[in-house]
Amino acid sequence: MTSDLGLEHINWDDVDVGCLGDDTKDTNIVPITPTVPPVPMPFEPDWPDPAARFIRVVRPEAPNPPLDLLPPRLSDWIVSAAEAAGAPADYVFGGLLAVTSSLIGNAYWAHARTGWTAPPVLWVMAIGQPSAGKSPALKAALAPLREIEKAERRKVEADYKEWEKKSDLAKMAEGVWKAKVKDALKEGEAPPVEPEDMRLPPPPHVPRLVSNDATIEKFALILAKQPKGALQYRDELAGWLNSMDRYSGASDRTFWLESFGGDSYTVERMSRDPLTVEHLSVSVLGGIQPDPLKTLLFNTDDDGLVARFIPIWPEPAPIKRPSTRPNDAYIKCIYNKLYGLELYEDEAGDLRPQLVYFTNEAEALLEPLRQACRDEEGKAGGLMLSFIGKLPGLVVRLSLILAALDWADGKTASLVEIDEDVFKRAAYIVWSYILPMARRAYAEASLPADDRKALRLVAYIREKRWETFTSREVLRAGLPGMGKAPDLNPVLAMLEDGDVIRPIEAHASQNGGRPTRAFVVNPKAHSL
């Protein structure tokens, strides 16, 4: 063998075999090529495929929107508006639900049974890539609402201009009066009485049916003068949701959590008088892309905020030329009738919602619905558990909206009750469409806690393109739920079992403590 001959370090290309004499030419001696012994590896070079559940989540297929449960003309409008926008009908359907919920607002609440009332407030999240047509579809549902707002603002403009003139005169009168008071006090005389010109009523309220970026203080001012409620629309929900705690602690988040329920809420700030909104009701509508949604689901606290959203994530619409034009006159009529609904004034002069009562037959279906939701909760985890817990209330809210749409369409003569048919339609929409959509959209967040952490860690490994890493590096990364070794260790064990990572030789600690654990990453985890 080469090692026996002591020739390991000879470069055979530099050796002149002729110097060995003529005998070498006659004996067919072949030079021996040295070999290098294999380097011992801490793992096998061949990796199996990593467990797919740690690489990506397989999403269920998107269900079809049950438009046949709406009045036919309304269903036709949704389809034609979606075609005109080049988008799936789902987005227009979701936008319509959010907008109509804001138009009903605090004027009418559902009375499911004794002790159970609910506003029609809905939050809708349209999910899809930038080319999915989210914005055009949502704007189709918003356009008639903006027209109503524009018309209402024009009505107030003349009154507001007149008020501004009176305000200028009041300021001038105040200046003259203060000067006379100063002179009177200087002369030791009684100050003059405050003139009538100084007494100015509050400015006329300019309606804000849609808000895009108001602070909670501004929103509270709007709702204090506009007790029916309003709609918050954000073309990109991710930035709005992620910025809630940035400037004001947890107050913004608390405000929006409360705005879903319609209860009384007081906004308090330093150097400002407290402002109380008797019925804080705000519907929310907006779009979000899949990647920001995934980040949001991984990083947000499960305080019920995201679980309030109805997620709408359809398959992309086929590219085709629209075959019909939406009936804009019809949808404007629907919106105007709903906008005309008003709160009633009680004996004390307070404005309150009018209640739409469930019939006995509809009320009898509440308990089977709640039991079905309880059964589903036993199979769920994470965000889906919170979402399913809100489904009975969502059916009640949607029942009121469907009853109001039936009335606005002319299908029913009045809006005084919610019958069995309306309740069943609402329950079917929730059970066959909204719940499957939530399973599709919130797939990552419905996994057990350690599985979600494992997915989060693998995503971070892929983002950083780590080939090797240490447990200390992960702890320093500050990933949610993995900031301490006892929380991280089960996740690392899961990834080892799933052939995503393997341990390698530990690094000695510089301060004499326990060695740092080190791991190598399955190369296939970066390519799959």
Write structural notes for this entry.
The structure is a single chain. 33% of the residues are buried. The protein is α/β, with parallel strands linked by helices and 528 residues long. The chain is built from 19 helices and 16 strands. The model is unreliable at 1-43 (pLDDT under 50). The protein has helices at 2-5, 22-26, 72-85, 89-104, 134-187, 216-225, 237-242, 251-258, 290-299, 328-339, 360-363, 366-377, 382-389, 391-409, 420-441, 449-464, 471-477, 485-497, 524-527; strands at residues 108-113, 116-118, 123-127, 210-211, 230-234, 265-267, 275-277, 282-288, 309-312, 344-345, 351-352, 354-358, 417-418, 468-470, 501-507, 516-521. Helix 4 crosses helix 14 (391-409), helix 14 packs across helix 15 and helix 16 (449-464) crosses helix 18. It has a five-stranded parallel β-sheet. Strands 2-1-12-13 form a four-stranded mixed β-sheet. A three-stranded antiparallel β-sheet has the order 14-16-15. It starts with a helix and ends with a helix.
